[in-house]
Each structure stands twice: as structure tokens, then as C-alpha cells.
Amino acid sequence: MATAKQLPKVVNGVNVDNLFTTIDAIKATPAIAKFNFRIENRWEGAAHNRSAVNGFSGAGQEFSRQKSFVLHADEPAILLGEDTAPNPVEYLLHALAACVTTGMIYHAAARGIQIEEVQSSFEGDIDLHGFLGLDKTVRQGYQGIRVNFKLNADAPDEQLQEIVRLGTDHSPVFDSLTNGVPVSVKVERM
Questions:
Q1: CA distance 153 to 132
Q2: Residue of 29, 7, 26, 27 lying closest to 17 (CA atoms)
Q3: How many angstroms from the chain centroid is the CA of residue 181?
Q4: How does pLDDT run across 110-128, given as a tens digit for each residue?
Q5: pLDDT tens digits, residue range 30-61?
Q6: What residues are paired with 36 via a beta bridge?
Q7: Contact of 22 with 16, CB cutoff 8 Å
Q8: What is the model's pTM?
Q9: Beta strands 69-73 and 48-58, pairing class
Q10: Partners of 37 in the β-ladder
Q11: Coil, strand, or helix at residue 29?
Q12: Engineered SS bond to 104: which of 96, 99, 125, 167, CB 3.0-4.6 Å?
């Protein structure tokens, strides 16, 4: 008698079977955990930049998407831009929000916790004295970032707090921001 094919377990839109298969594969072959992400950026004039996102490497192979993602960045008019796109520090907040939220959803799914809805707000403070070089004691980047999450899930408050903590504890973007990351810069003539 033939058995019916078992459907994958999906929680929060995450295929949990595949999640644990990936974890087991990385435990068995640690080298496949190494990934390299990259973008190509081109200055478009004034404060406008255009970046293309396509290839990356991971799991011991090179990947190329069928279509590149294009990201535009600009500045608001008060910061001498044309306000045609988010500015770079707004993208940083978006990257942080998306990474922490994804981490929360994955960890909740792995624990079988169904999340119905997540809303969050991220805001950060920058003092232009640093960016403009007017005061060397003022940092150029964010001086602080505040995050507020609202979750709708059938779980006690303590478990929701734990899910948020797992999201921040395992987020590559959160880690890069809070612990710093070496950045090497080289210049060459076109």
C-alpha cells in the first residue's frame, strides 16, 4: 500500500522541515555556512546613488538571480537631495528592522509558535555636527536607535519577549551595528 506524501510543516510561512534540514547540513558540513553578499553602486548625481543587487555566494557555490534588485538612495531636500528615495541611514534602519523581524519569525517557527502579526518602529538620532566635521566629539553615525515591537501571537508575554531577544541575538545586522565590523576601503582610478 502506497503512503501519501507528507506535507512540509509550515509555521509563519517558514518551511520548518527545510529549516531543520539546513541546520543539520551546516552541523555536518560547517564550511557551507559561509556566505558572501555584495552590491554594485553607481553615483547618479548630487545625493542620488543606484545600487544593483544580484550575485552572492554561499553553501559552497555561486548564485545569480534572474533579475537584479535595484536600490536607489537620495537625501531629502533639506539635506541637499531631491528626495527621490530613502536616504542611506533610513536603509540602515530598514535593514535592521527586516533582519531582526526575520530572525524572530524563524526562531518562533522553529519553536512552533504561530505569529499572527508583527509591527515595529525604528528611529535613530544623528547630529550633523559629526557628518559635517564641525565637532570632532560628535560621531558621524547614529547616536542611538530605538526599537518598538508589537506582536500578535497565541503565546504568553514571556515567550514573546524571548522571541524578540532571539531575533536581536541572532540578527547579523543587529550584531554588525552593536559590535562593529571591520570595513576595508581601497581606491582605484576608473
A1: 45
A2: 7
A3: 15
A4: 999 999 999 999 999 999 9
A5: 999 999 999 999 999 999 999 999 999 999 99
A6: 57
A7: no
A8: 0.93
A9: antiparallel
A10: 56
A11: coil
A12: 167
**Spatial CA neighbour of 59 closest among 34, 88, 76, 42:** 34
Residues 6+ apart with CB under 8 A from 70: 50, 51, 52, 53
The C-alpha atoms of residue 92 and residue 173 are separated, in whole angstroms, by 9
Written as nine digits, the cell of 149 is: 515591537
For residues 75-106, one letter each, b for 16 or more C-beta atoms within 10 angstroms of the residue's C-beta and e for the rest, the string is: beeeeebeeebbbebeebbebbbebbbebbbb
Write the secondary structure of 113-144 as one string of H (helix), E (strand) and C (coil).
Answer: CCEEEEEEEEEEECCHHHHCCCCCCCCCCCCE
The residue to which cell 506535507 is assigned: 7
Q: How many CB atoms lie within 10 A of CB 59?
A: 14
